[in-house]
Amino acid sequence: MKTTAAAPGKIILFGEHAVVYSRPAIAVPVVDVQATATILDLSPGSGCTLIAHDLGSQLRLSTTGEDDALGLIVRLTLDELALAADPDWQIEIRSQIPIASGLGSGAAVSTALVRAIFHHVGLDPEPETISRLVYRSEELHHGTPSGIDNTVIAYAQPIWFVRGEPIRTFVPARSFTIAIADSGIGSPTKETVGDVRRAWQRDPARYEDWFDEIGEIVHAARSVMESGEVAALGPLMDRNQTLLRQIGVSADPLERLITAARNAGAAGAKLSGGGRGGNVIALVETETAPAIRRAFLDAGAKQVLVTTVIGDRGLETGD
Ligand code: MEV
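Above: inputs. Below: predicted complex with (R)-mevalonate.
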């Protein structure tokens, strides 16, 4: 028997970093890039082999250590289902999602693996179960992540995320399009989250004020998405970016990409995710998208993905 399952990438639109301090954040799935896991039954006694095509690695599950993210999520899922610790399976993993760029490649691979294992034994996992298991593997890379990545990828819907509160998915009233530019520089999330924590400990009042301001922007962004006045998202992105710069997680290459997108007609732009590297996002329209894509590439982006967040009124973006 052969089972395949997939999971999308994700992008944070508003609220990164402040979300670690219990302010809200908004994130959406990016379905244009996917991770997939395929399970094939092997003959009895073969044990479990993990083949990660994009990493060029092939491992036996029984020899993977606690610090191996793929082995960890497979073991956690087998354990959850009370299955044999070393099933006779070949598990193949493929991903189109750039690694360490803020598109949630690790969480997407883990989600695809959890789904594939459940499906292979005839079960359909609840998003909540996937999210809980994937969070455990995310801890390996990110220390104590807020949980936003695993949540948006497991639910595969736009989410309003507040740490420790029940998940709320929502559908924007109107579709809008963003361009996602990969700076080509890895985003050291664990490091930026740690630096922000140390800076917050030194000057809690100032950082709490900035996190409050980010929280207000995220609330405003949600109202705008729900009312369909999506052009207003641009200035909100710009304000969020100013605050991200103030809290110390921007970097010159990201600022260059942001300026280039704005100069090419983007209604707003900001970094997305942990910062210092990773992605920049810009609000674009059908007419401005090609020029903004070009501007991003000219300003050093390694690749640009233009993706539409589908609203209630489908793909129609005008009146
Ligand atoms: C990283 O994708 C987003 C951060 O807010 C960290 C987190 O939420 O765990 C920077």
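Residues 204-227 form the longest helix (24 residues).
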